[in-house]
Amino acid sequence: MIWLEQLEHELGARGIKGRRRERILVELRDHIACEPGCEARLGDPVALAVSFADELGAAEARRSAFGAVAALVVAAVALIVSQLAIGAAGGPPGFEHGHSLALFVPAALGMLLAPQVALVAGTLAVVRALRRRRAGVLPAAELELIRRRTRVALLAGLATILGLELYVVDFSSVLAAWWLALVGGAAALAALALLAAMRGLSQAGEIVSEVDGPSGDIFDDVPLPGSRWLRRRPWYLGALAAIGVTAVMTLFVWHAERSLVEGLERGVLEGIAAAVGFALLGRAVGTRPVRQQAPSAGRRPETPRR
Amino acid sequence: MKPDAVSGQLESLILATVAESPAHGYAIVQQLKQRSGGAFDLAEGTVYPALHRLEHEGLLSSSWSVETGRRRRVYQLTRAGRSTLGERRREWGRFAQAVEAVLE
User: I need a labelling partner for A52 at 20 to 30 A (CA). Which of A90, A181, A259, B22 fits?
Assistant: First the structure.
């Protein structure tokens, strides 16, 4: 049983614990029971634990990205329903009708900005997970990138839901009771979904993969024109994104509100927010390059797999 | 046969083995050895991460069974697994034909 004990220890050291480890051990215990003394033919327990960690690390990172997007869809539905139904509930009220600016400002920021961060980070996470869905193992740096994008998306999703709940509290004396109950309930449900996805992400992050290789960046995920040039000048990408957001939002609000001034105001604000978001979160979501670590001794290179 | 040569095709070999009938890990290893005439010399443990991966990909499904008082995980091919196996058989046929044509 020394072989199994060593495997158990090595799996634990690589973050494979609980039911997942138990299942692996039961399967290999059964294998040894079928032919006592066959441990040597099973191979090195360290190598086997590394192999499990590499494979499970990739699968769990992808799964956590998909789980996060599912939870974000629930949050998006809560936000959209709140805005579609608010007209029938006597709103939207002006901020002066709320209880306090201390509630309104974080609520507005959460409901306006956080969903955009969640959309960008969540899309990038799931695009990478889909693009690499056939890879048996992924470099540790790439797993970290998927997990970072997923984490940013989930945190932004939680900020959105928190903003929505603050909005409900701020206007609880103005808006209809049915709207408060509907939106409060939907937001609570979305918060539960997001927390469950966060738990899945946290469990995926416990698995220690040892595969070497680059994490890649946004240009690997999105075929942008001039990507070779932009890759060496990431701040130009940030500037282009901010200009693009400004233009789109200006046109959208101009068309919706029939006011160019309002369109420009909203467009410029959104553009500034996009630039700030790029500066603050660019590294986390892989839109700005992260310094790659030199391959460490003992790490496995990524191997292509059918 | 070198382990590297086998590991590149391990997934297809496992799918083909499980296609015959549902089986647990040890039985899959034994069938691989038997059907290859002992040509595949791979660390038997490597089959298990591959089984878990194939299950994650939806090509295999698994369930617990109890035999002679021992719990064991039994794997079987899913519909997606059957279709993937067919695809890989065709790919391998074309590849083997091409290699043979060059080597002969």
Answer: B22
Determine the average pLDDT of the residues in A291-298.
53
Count of domains observed in chain B? 1
**Interchain pair A48, B46: CB under 8 A:** yes
Query: Would you tell me how many other CB atoms lie within 10 Å of the CB of residue B27?
Result: 18
> What ipTM goes with this model?
0.88
DSSP state letter for A87: G
Q: How many domains does chain A have?
A: 3
The β-bridge partners of B64 are B73
Interface test mutation site (partner A, options B6, B10, B26, max chain A beta carbons within 10 A): B26
**d(C-alpha A267, C-alpha A273), whole Å:** 10
For residue B75, what are the β-bridge partners? Answer: B23, B62
Task: Give the containing element (helix H, strand E) for A75.
Answer: helix A45-85
* B11 shares contact with chain A (CB less than 8 Å): yes
For residue A225, give the 3-state DSSP assignment: coil
Q: What is the pLDDT of residue A27?
A: 94
A305: closest chain B residue by CA:
B8
DSSP B67: E
Considering the domain architecture, whether residues A223 and A184 belong to the same structural domain is answered as no
Q: In this structure, are A208 and A268 located in the same domain?
A: no
Please tell me which of the candidates B9, B11, B46 has its beta carbon nearest to residue A43.
B46
Q: How far apart are alpha carbons A173 and A169 in whole angstroms?
A: 8
